[in-house]
Every structure is written in C-alpha cells, then in structure tokens.
Amino acid sequence: MTRALLSLSPFSCARTYHRTVFHTGLQLRMPSSARNPPLYCNAPGRPFNVFQAQAANARKQSVWQFVASSMFRATHRSGISRGRSGWSGGGGGPQGPWQRLRARINAIPTKYVFWGILGLNGLVFASWNLAWAKYQSTGDSSSYVWMLQNFVASADNLKNGRWWTVVTCCFSHENITHLLFNGFAYYFTAPVVLSLLGNVGFLGLYLGSGIVSSVAAVAWRYYTNPHVRGGSHGASGAIYAVTSFFACVAPNATFALFGVFPLPAWAFVTGIFLWDGYNAIVPSGGRTDHAGHIGGLLSGIGYFIAKRLRIF
Prior knowledge:
Layout: E1 4-7, E2 27-29, H1 63-68, H2 97-106, H3 110-138, H4 142-150, E3 153-154, H5 155-159, H6 165-168, H7 176-224, E4 230-233, H8 236-249, E5 254-257, E6 261-264, H9 265-281, H10 290-308
Antiparallel strand pairs: 1-4, 2-5, 3-4, 5-6
Helix pairs in contact: 3-4, 3-7, 7-8, 7-10, 8-10, 9-10
C-alpha cells in the first residue's frame, strides 16, 4: 500500500514519479469456516444477533465470531436499526431527511459498495492512462493536465479552489503496480469492516480518512518543502484507516505479511506506523507519501474511538 508523490511538472520528468517502495502484501487470515464470507452478510432489514461469549473462549474466537460477540457493541451506536423503516438516532428524529438518506444508503447491498469503490479506482486509472496516451500520440496535454488538476491533492490545487481533490485523489492511481497493491490490501480488509459498520459507516471511514490523509500530506509537504511544487494521490491513506480500524476492533486477528509471515493486527499497524513515521521525519528521497499514510492510520484509530464513545 503506497500513496504516490508526484511532480506537478510531469512533461519534464516523463512519469518518473511512479513508486513501489513499500509493499506490504497484506492478507487477512481467518479460520476456514470464516473464509470467503458473503460481502452482504449484514443484509438490510435483518437485525444483528449479538451473543455473549465466555471470557475463557475469547481468544479462540474467529473474526466473524468476534463480530457477533458482545465486543461488537463497542463500535456501534446503540438503538440504531439498519432496516428500511428509519432510524432511532438523533439529528432530526427517526424520520428526518438525514435518517431517511442513511437508511436508503444502508439498504444498498454491501457488495455494491465494495465493488463500486474498486470500480471507481479502476475508472480513474484508465482515465490517467488514456490522457497520457493522448499526450504521447498527439502532443495534446490538456487531458493530462485536467487529471493533474482534479485527481491530485496539492497545495496548488487547494489554493486554486479545487477542494474536491482531497477526495478524488483517494480514487486515483496512474501506475498499475500501485493500483494492484492497494486493491489487494482493500480486498482483504474492507469486507470485514464493511460488515461491521454498514454502508454509511464504512463510507464515512473511507472518505473521511481519505480527506484527513490528503490534508495531512499537503500540510506536511508544505511545512517541510514550501517552495517545492508537488502533490500526491492514491487510496492507501483510506485503506490504512480501514486497516487500523480493524486492528482496534480485533487486535489479535492475524495478518499475513507478503501473504506468508503471520502478524497480529496490532503489531502490523504499529510496525507501519513506526516505518512511515520515521521516513516522514527522515526523508529517504523516495516517492512514497509517508505523511498521508500516517494521517490515514490515525484517522482510522480516531474513528474507532469516536464509535466507542458513541460520538456518532
């Protein structure tokens, strides 16, 4: 999982900003009985069944058994139903416009949300490469410049009022390796968190953390190199947030680093936090946006704390 750093003067560097510096090869290991679960395991209108698990068996629980345990309540606001009939939370009453909107979004099968995010990333990837092919074949750089102006988080874009780039950059990959790394990590971590939070909660985590990651990246770059024009893009900030949230919910779940080396979730998140923190403070000259990674990790942890404290 990497977030790209790139120059805003691409035509002089011939796309040399592609990077594959940090590849985690993240894979989530679950017991055989819990593998390949349907992405729509929390179907709209079907209430959760919460079971009390004995403390002596807590360590033996699988991820999906954990979801059904009493610990699951820590990540949800009590008294809220995901059905079509409305919401019992605050903010305008159970039948207010916000509650109706949330109910409609949560009524969408979760598999559409899961694959929709992957599809958007693939669509933006195709747009990047079509724009570059057009520039190479015709010399017309207008499409490529438009992509730089609308799918890269940079101080220049924000100064020019293109605030939406802090969101659109979270779906933006130009290099196929970058897209595959992030897509691989998303594929193994997102389904469990999506089933925990529901559509609205997951989109809030993904998009909100993506914004935090983008702002952190722009702010850190401006603070450390105020005279250097540049930007970043990639979904890794949002994916790191999903991963850190999951690690807070199930810290002893096992991740397989590079698909081989087993690590508990808490150790994995701690390790990448230390790695990215060190490289952000002591730049190595690479193209990885370490500050964006840190922003994503911290926002995922913050989201978990907010859920646990029932702030939203």
